[in-house]
Design goal:
By secondary structure, the chain is α/β, with parallel strands linked by helices. It is built from 17 helices and 22 strands. The strands form 7 sheets. The protein has an 8-stranded parallel barrel, surrounded by 7 helices. α2 runs parallel beside α3, α10 crosses α12 and α13 packs across α15. The longest helix has 19 residues.
Length: 501
C-alpha cells in the first residue's frame, strides 16, 4: 500500500514538522476554480478563506485586519497597547465597511477643517455629516467631503463655511437596495438617512458599494460590518480590555498565551462566555490532546495550536518545551474533532505547501506572522538595510516587545528578569497583501486539486477516513523537493524584492 494514514504516521510519536511529511496525490476530476476554501474559524464563525494574521505588533493593526477581512480572512489586533488604543483599532475596522452605518462620526458647524483631518487620519475617511448639535441626535444641516476641504490652506476655518448644504437624503425605513440605487443615480459619495423631522438616523456610503462589488468573499458579521479579532491576556486587568473590545464590536478574541493550559486561561474563558455570549473565544496556545480537551471543556469556541514553530520564536530551544507543528496540529485537531471545535494552526507557515499540510492535518484555519510581515499593510515603516528594503519584525517574546507589554503572554510582565523566547529581525518588502493573499489562495486551490478534494470538509473527511495518505521525507527527499543546483533564483511569491541564494 502506498503511504501511511494520518493515524499510522503519528503513531511513531515523533515530533514531526511540516517539512518532515509529504502528502500523496489523489485523482483529479475537477478544475482548480471549483475548489471552495470556505472553512470554520470557531464554532460560530465561518470564513471564505482559511487565512488569519497573528496578533503581533509588527503584523496586525487596522490596515492588515481590514485587507484580510476584505479578502475573506480575518486579522487579530495585538495588545501591545492600551485597551483604549486596541478598541479604537477594532472600531476602525468595524467602521470601514457597512450597509447602513448606524453610528456615523458626526461633527457640528462650529468644528474646524482640522477636525476632519484628524478623523481622516484616524479612520481613513472624510465624508462627515454635519448636524446642528454636532452629534447623531441633531438635525442634519450639511455634509463635508474632500471636495470641500482639499484646497483650503487654512485648516482653522469653521465647517459652516465650507460644508455642502444642497443634500440628497433618503427617508428612514428605506431598504439598503433602494438606498444603493439613490447613490448610483445621484452620483454622491454619501447618502444620509433622516427621519421625518430631518434628524440624522444613519448613513450609506458609495465606497461600500464598490467594496461589495470588488470583494464578494469579504468576512462580514450579521450587521454587514467587516469581522475582526483581538488578543487579550489572562491578567485580571484585561477584563477591562475585554469590555472595551466588546463595546467596540469585536467578533472574536484570542487569549494570547505561550502555554495555554492553565487555570488562569480556563477561568478567563469561562468569564467571557458567562458575560459575553455573542463573542467567540479562541483559547491557546497548546500542542497536545489533553491540553486541547481542557480548553474545550472550559468553553473555548476554537483552539490555537503551536508552541515554538514561528520563525522568530525560540521557545523550544530556550525552554525545551513544545512540539513539532505537524504533530501538534494533528493530535490537537483529533482531540477537538468530536466536539465540533475548529483548531487554528499558528506558526511554522513558510509557503503555500505548509498551509495545505496544516489543513490536511485537521486545522480549519492557519495563523501567520512572518508571511504577512513586511507587507504594505503591516505596521511600521520601510527602510533600507544592506541595500534591501525591509520592515522590522519581532516576536512578542523578544526583549524589545516584552518591554512594551508582550510579556503578558509569557506570565513575565511582573518579573524583574525577562527571559526572551523570541527575537527581533527584519523582513524584505513583500508588497501588498492585496497581491499576496490571492496568490496564496490560488496555490491552495491547485494543491487541493492535486489531492483530489474540492473543499476543506472533504479534506478532513479524507484524513479521518484514512483515504488521505502521507509519507515521511528523508533529508535527501527534502533537498530534492526544493530548489537546488542553481546559482541563485527569485522567490515566486516575492518576485524581485527577495533573492534567494
Amino acid at each position: 500500500m502506498d503511504g501511511m494514514t494520518g493515524r499510522e504516521l503519528f503513531q511513531s510519536r515523533q515530533s514531526l514538522t511540516y517539512d518532515d511529511i509529504i502528502i500523496l496525490p489523489g485523482h483529479i476530476d475537477f478544475a482548480a476554480q471549483a475548489v471552495s476554501l470556505r472553512t470554520k474559524l470557531t464554532r460560530e464563525i465561518t470564513l471564505n478563506t482559511p487565512l488569519t494574521s497573528s496578533p503581533m505588533d509588527t503584523v496586525t493593526e487596522a490596515e492588515m485586519a481590514i485587507q484580510l477581512a476584505l479578502l475573506g480572512g480575518l486579522g487579530f489586533i495585538h495588545y501591545n497597547n492600551t485597551p483604549e488604543e486596541q478598541a479604537a483599532i477594532v472600531r476602525r475596522v468595524k467602521r470601514f465597511e457597512n450597509g447602513f452605518i448606524t453610528d456615523p462620526i458626526v461633527l457640528g458647524p462650529h468644528h474646524k477643517i482640522r477636525d476632519v483631518d484628524a478623523i481622516r487620519a484616524a479612520h481613513g475617511f472624510s465624508g462627515i455629516p454635519i448636524t446642528e448639535t454636532g452629534d447623531l441626535q441633531g438635525k442634519l444641516i450639511g455634509i463635508v467631503t474632500n471636495r470641500d476641504t482639499d484646497l483650503e490652506q487654512n485648516r482653522e476655518i469653521p465647517l459652516r463655511e465650507v460644508m455642502t448644504t444642497a443634500l440628497v437624503t433618503a427617508p428612514e425605513g428605506i431598504s439598503l437596495r433602494e438606498a444603493n440605487q439613490i447613490l448610483k443615480e445621484s452620483k454622491k459619495g454619501k447618502l444620509p438617512i433622516v427621519d421625518r423631522r430631518g434628524y440624522l438616523v444613519s448613513l450609506v456610503s458609495r465606497t461600500d458599494l464598490l467594496k461589495n462589488r470588488d470583494y464578494p468573499e469579504a468576512s462580514k458579521s450579521n450587521q454587514k460590518q467587516l469581522m475582526v479579532g483581538a488578543a487579550l491576556s489572562t491578567r485580571p486587568e484585561d477584563r477591562e480590555r475585554l469590555e472595551a473590545l466588546v463595546a467596540a464590536g469585536v467578533d472574536v478574541v484570542v487569549i494570547d498565551a505561550a502555554q495555554g493550559d492553565s487555570t488562569f486561561q480556563a477561568e478567563t474563558i469561562r468569564h467571557i462566555k458567562r458575560n459575553h455570549k455573542s463573542v467567540q473565544v479562541i483559547g491557546g496556545n497548546i500542542v497536545t490532546q489533553k491540553q486541547c480537551a481542557a480548553l474545550i471543556a472550559a468553553g473555548a469556541d476554537g483552539v490555537r495550536i503551536g508552541m515554538g514553530p514561528g520563525s522568530i520564536c525560540i521557545t523550544q530551544e530556550t525552554m525545551a518545551v513544545g512540539r513539532g507543528q505537524a504533530a501538534a496540529v494533528y493530535h490537537s485537531a483529533l482531540a477537538a474533532r468530536d466536539s465540533g471545535v475548529p483548531v487554528v494552526a499558528d506558526g511554522g507557515i513558510r509557503d503555500i505547501g505548509d498551509v495545505t499540510k496544516a489543513l490536511a492535518l485537521g486545522a480549519g484555519t492557519v495563523m501567520m506572522g512572518s508571511m504577512f510581515a513586511g507587507t504594505t499593510e503591516a505596521p511600521g515603516e520601510y527602510f533600507y538595510k544592506n541595500g534591501m528594503r525591509v520592515k522590522r519584525y519581532r516576536g512578542m517574546a523578544s526583549i524589545e516587545a516584552m518591554e512594551q507589554g508582550g510579556s503578558k503572554r509569557y506570565f513575565a510582565d511582573r518579573e524583574q528578569i525577562l527571559v526572551a523566547q523570541g527575537v527581533s529581525g527584519f523582513v524584505v518588502d513583500k508588497g501588498s497583501v492585496k497581491n499576496l493573499v490571492p496568490y496564496i489562495l490560488q496555490g491552495l486551490r491547485h494543491s487541493f486539486q492535486d489531492l483530489g478534494v474540492r473543499d476543506v470538509t472533504s479534506l478532513h473527511d479524507a484524513l479521518y477516513g484514512d483515504s488521505l495518505l502521507f509519507e515521511l521525507r528523508t533529508h535527501s527527499a527534502q533537498k530534492e523537493g526544493g530548489v537546488h543546483s542553481l546559482h541563485s533564483y527569485e522567490h515566486p511569491t516575492l518576485g524581485k524584492r527577495e533573492r534567494e541564494k
